[in-house]
Amino acid sequence: MTPTPKPPLPDENEPLRPHSFDGIQEYDKRLPNWWLMTLFGAVVFWAGYWFYYERAHIGHTNAQIVEQQLAVIEATRLANAPTVDDASLWKMSRNPVFVDAGRASFETTCVSCHTKELTGAIGPNLVDHLWIHGGRPTEIYTTVTQGVLAKGMPPWGPVLGPKKISEAVAYILSYHQEGEPIEVQAAWVPPPPK
Amino acid sequence: MAAPLPNRDFVTTIRDDGSRPFLFPADTHGRFTTVRRIWSLLLIAFYLSLPWIQINGYPAVFLDIAQRRFHLFGLTLAAQDVWLMFFVITGLGFSLFFVTALFGRIWCGWACPHTVFLDHVYRRIERAIDGDAVSRRLLDEAPASGGKLFKRVFKHSLYILVSAVIAHLFLAYFVSLPEVWVMVSAAPTAHWSAFAFMAVFTGILYFNFGWFREQLCIVICPYGRLQSALIDDNSLVIGYDMKRGEPRGKVGTEGAGACVACNRCVQVCPTGIDIRQGLQLECVGCTACIDACDDVMTRLHRPRGLIRYD
Amino acid sequence: MSGQKITIEYNDRVVRQFLLATVIWGAVGMLVGVLIAAQLNFWQLNFATPWLTFGRLRPLHTNAVIFAFVGNMMFAGIYYSTQRLVKARLASDFLSSLHFWGWQFIIVCAAVTLPLGLTRGKEYAELIWPINLMVVLIWVVFAVNFFWTLARRREPALYVAIWFYISTIVTIAMLYIVNHLSIPTSLLHSYPVFSGVQDALVQWWYGHNAVAFFLTTPILGIMYYFLPKAAERPVYSYRLSVVHFWSLVFVYIWAGPHHLLNTALPGWLQNLGMTFSLMLWAPSWGGMLNGLLTLRGAWHKLRTDPVLKFYAAAVTFYGMATFEGPLLSIKSVNALAHYTDWIIGHVHAGTLGWNGFMAAGLIYWLLPRLWNKPLYSTALANLHFWIGTVGILLYVAAMWTSGITQGLMLNATTEHGTVLAYPNFLDTLNTIRPMMLMRVIGGGLYLAGWFLLVYNFYRTVKGAAPVNGTIEVYDEAPAPDAKLSLAGTFFSAPTLFWFLAVGFSSMWMFGTDLVSTAGIVGAVACLIAAFALVPSRSQAWGGWYEKLLLNALPFTLLVFFAVVAGGLIQIIPTVLVQKAKNVEDRIQTPYTPLELAGRDIYIREGCYLCHSQMIRTLVPDILRYGDYSRLGESIYDHPFQWGSKRTGPDLARVGVKYPNVWHFRHMENPRAVSPGSNMPTYPWLFSHALDASVMPAKIKVQRLLGVPYGPRTAQQIFDSMDEQAKGIAKDLRTAGAYVDSDKEIVALISYLQTLGKSLPVITKSAPR
User: Fold this and answer.
1) Chain A touched by C658 (CB under 8 Å)
2) Best to test chain A binding among C8, C284, C418 (most A CBs inside 10 Å)
3) Model pTM?
């Protein structure tokens, strides 16, 4: 270990303030000027920021900014909107790439109400021939996208997007055959709890 | 104006009016200087080469923020893997704690990028253009002249140039070199945010290494302070052998210790302290005072190590 | 020197009592913290027991560590140092005892009521109104005892530590009273007088400044006494003390809105919150530097003295937390970090590092002096330091990575930015689960370190005789010529410049054209005049300030004016604004009685601690939760429920998103419908009958507070509740879920299903 250094020598050039509080003395050193400049700089920044947003209204408000961004998203969505038709959805439902991707989405998003077996619990059975909001592929697609708020089906369009929804629909359709009967059901009655 | 001789009641680099005396640490030669220079150059080469080395088709370190893909030495992580950073942070933290408890602030003096780039790049530029410590101080105090202006412009241009190079290579950690090249080749307006980042980062580096220097270690950096609290009596720190050195006196003085009060250790210190006053907040363990003192002791045919790692 | 020499004995008994309470409540508070951190990992640890669920214990943790742990520590430190700094025994032994026992009684009341679910539903202000009254009473006792002691001081000038104590007493009183204004509906329940955005603003004005004036200023005062004492060094800079004290107390108050960035809070408040937070960096670091550079001359002692190790680390963590704070207040950084664990990490860097380590340093330094016996084990204290530091490293690193990971995942989009990359919230939760476990380990280590302190405390104190400090003083009257009149206080250049600068700046900020122009001209003139006068007048101003330090009352008044400015300018316009004109096109539909009852259950169970009800003006929030929240949509919420953390998803628009039975199954067992969820189960909601009898009184108070309920009899209220509950129960029955309509779950479902319900407002709201 290094030897203990001497106690610091009081420097007569360093004036202590005359007062002592319970033995505590005070120097009156200056802080670096650059430190003071950061405080002044922050004040100047406040003035500039306030002028930019609140006096001159050059900067946009939060709502204006987000509305612009949403408009861009809307435009992108429209430009990239896939053509969804019954034939292509049926075709996807026979392609394992789409079906597997759809299963992944289904199992994180849909199983809480429709169960892993798709036989329904909180939400209706998806493997029988009974459909409440239509059983054609495009009808299923629309139901998933727009939801049925009155019955507690959330609109998944904004959350999942068209790609994942078509995959999920393809996954549901993989349990069905093209041309099988579609019967209309008025409302879903869940099975009694086990 | 030169900095006053350090003592323990005030910070050398803050004057009474709050202004900052610029330090002109003298050159050192010796074991530690040599080893540290070689080691630092290796480190710099390592830092700067990472974006160039390709592993598994990606640069060794490529934090692709735009794609949220993080490539580390062949490993590719996505946003959901960012939590693995925990092990990097705590791993570094534990290493720092452990190394500090054993060897003191060895990180600060030997591996911190701030010290490495400051001592081995920027100070070298300064040394090459402005000369040794005395010349630098005289130049600083000299009235404005054509020669001084030329040297100043030359030095600061080099500082900015080096800062810009470092900033670009740093950016290459995030956007890959070919992409950086594409951005550099295009007009600033084409990649506005990248250009702004680059300009600001270059400015920060230039300010830090060109002027701010030891203030970062003294005032800003929390690790140095935390490290000081992690050191105990058995840690290796740089110290002055008071038993052997005191009382100080010129060669031949009756009863004098080994220290000849040449103040060489103070002149070489890049943080403006007198190591003979013991372990201090400012000391980053750069070893300059060891080499300086050893040099003097050797010339006096006295054993080395009056100031040493102990 | 005149007068007789006398010996006075300090009241160190109360200091010992507070110190002991600090140690005990610290252990309790941290233990609850580790438990609730573990609950987030293992939902089973909620034990399906009401009073052990996260939502009820989390307020217990925060209240215990803030008010019980740091509170007792600060009273110990303040009482010990103040007596010595003013050379006078505490004015009243009775008030000191009353303060101590009253405070402990409050803590015990809190520890009983919070697990019972008795809460006001506002963070760090959860305690119910009878306890609020006790807190105010005891705070007044503290204030009287403190200022009375100052009045009897034999040391004419006030030392910097005392300035900080004064600011604490004054400001906490102001914050506490305003944020606890409420109207009781029963002995155990009340509604806050503010609602929606006003409540949010008042809450975070309070919440942020509780950090400032409960966790920071008193501890800085303690630092200014105990750090130079322990280091045996003079304080580095008096001048710096002056600058950073006044800038800190003035600026801090304004920064509250940074807790509400990107929300429905009006933009001007967000801008003020952000810019003043950035301004706060320099004053905060001023305190850190003064502490650090005071230690500087004794730096070599850091190798051996655990007290100094704790202080050096505490000051360092203070610096890190106050650097991180302004950073997190930048809107774009906040967009990523808000509602995530990063904020929790930030808070704990401050509380574990700064408060906890300052407390440890204080205790290790005081023990030998209060019991006249060396510390039992320095080695154990060093070990405590190491374990604590490693604990902080693990905790903070885990929370940083967790917060950043989850923030990145929640904000990540794909398919040209049109769709969320991780639409399932649970994916983001389960990714950070390892980090949440690491946080338990880090917190557990920190707690283990604290137990070492407890043991060291016990072994040191055991068998030791307590001693009280004494001092010999001249019994003399304070010099009369140093009196500063009120006129001399306020009509002095520094005070006038300050008032004019704030006044002119406010005119510029808020005035219309002419007033604004006058404001900017005045502010600039003020600035130029002040700077021009500095060289010639600084000596005189310094003299005036030293004179001010001899006068406690004028000093206190100036502190009050400094801290009141920010609150007045932010809160008054927000509270006075006519609600109907400030709703942004949409106005909330008032709750039905059943929904209101359900809302009170939501608050009782502490749902707001994990679920926000505020969709920010940010694309990822909107993609995930729906259209951004408008001011008017929570205008009738007493208290507001915007939340501060999203351990679960936002609920602002969860109403009618799922069928009733979804909520039923979810509350019964969250994992049945949300696999991987860490939410507790709430079985008691299915067996407890709703207490409808309290609703008429509650609705009466809501009407009083301005919620548009028409006049109705108690019977009408009961009938309406019954009818709505029966409807829900019937719907549940058809979906296969059987529950009596009088159970609490029915009311809660009715509330959840109404979230997001609002009416469009035709009149376009005018810009501010």
Assistant:
1) yes
2) C418
3) 0.93
